[in-house]
Amino acid sequence: xxxxxxxxxxxxxxxxxxxxxxxxxxxxxxxxxxxxxxISKPRILDSTCATGIRGIRYEKEAGAxxxxxxxNAGASYSASKNxxxxxxxxxxxxxxxxEFANTTENKYxxxxxxxxxTPAPYIYDLMKIASKGAMLMVTATDxxxxxxxxxxxxxxxxNSVPLHNELCHEAGIRILLSFISRMxxxxxxxxxxxxxxxxxxxxxxxxxxRSGAQEASSSMSANGYVSYCTKCHAYYTNAGIVAILxxxxxxxxGRLLHSGPIWVGAMDDKITxxxxxxxxxxxxxxxxxxxxxxxxxxxxVPFFYSIxxxxxxxxxxxxxxxxxxxxxxxMGVRATKAMFEKDCIKSAGGIREVTxxxxxxxxxxxxxxxx
Length: 371
Ligand SMILES: C[S@@+](CC[C@H](N)C(=O)[O-])C[C@H]1O[C@@H](n2cnc3c(N)ncnc32)[C@H](O)[C@@H]1O
Known about the structure:
alpha/beta, Phenylalanyl-tRNA Synthetase, Chain B, domain 1, 2 domains, 14 helices, 24% strand, globular, binds S-adenosylmethionine
């Protein structure tokens, strides 16, 4: 048995029960988003509780009424002990999500799903116990699947074809959102994503469910495809489950790779993120606040351009992404760094504008170097 302390909560971790101290920043973001839901005393289901750290934090820090679930008896025992030791009052239930969701009368304002690997098998059942306008927080740690290292597994689990290149993380998040929206639509629910984040080992999406056939249909129209050019590294998004996709790149004639269905709508809602950050971003949640802050700075457009990939393919000497962003600004094109991807930029302009800006920066560099 090992002991940890996280935000003043002492957690005992029994042998075989999962706890990862490195995921603290993700739990911090989840607490911030729960607080930002604006619901006083939200009913939260921590549906994969392990030691119970998340649920206890929701109760202590967000004033929530919490139920916790875990299929594993050892985890449920551990969570119950931790609830008692921290003088919390959350209820711990030793059941699977599937069994619980199909037998309870309870409904939840916020549902947290943080399983091992893929969340796909649980989404449908969780829709049954979401209250009207509920917030879902969903983690996926099967990055290799969503990022295209195991294409067949992605098609099987998420019914989407992934990408396996520099766009793969964002494409993976968009596959996850698309999958959730398709499950939601079966319950006449639409989705409204408010925050989507990824790091090497995890993806996590936060979204509201919106009730009604029209909401469901409008979410379905935010499903579509991304096509990526293997030659010039342009990308094109198309909305619609039945989209007509070019085979060749309109910019250079290169071969296009297609991924989808993906969510082609917004992955983040800056109004909600800004409110959450202003109200709850603090020293206490330093890393989490930094992530939210970066989200606000990033241009909200689908996908991004990798500057080194474009320069290498075009035989141009390497250039600084910051200078390319400045040059695009001079050309009247909005652009920012892609905050979670090295040397990549988000641009309101397409591949032609980005390539022109790169060439212009490279020419200035060459002149300065006397070439
Ligand atoms: C990654 S851990 C959760 C970690 C926890 N949320 C935290 O922040 O420390 C995943 C947990 O989900 C539980 N689990 C797996 N399948 C489940 C199911 N079908 N229903 C409920 N819990 C499940 C596992 O027993 C495990 O304790």
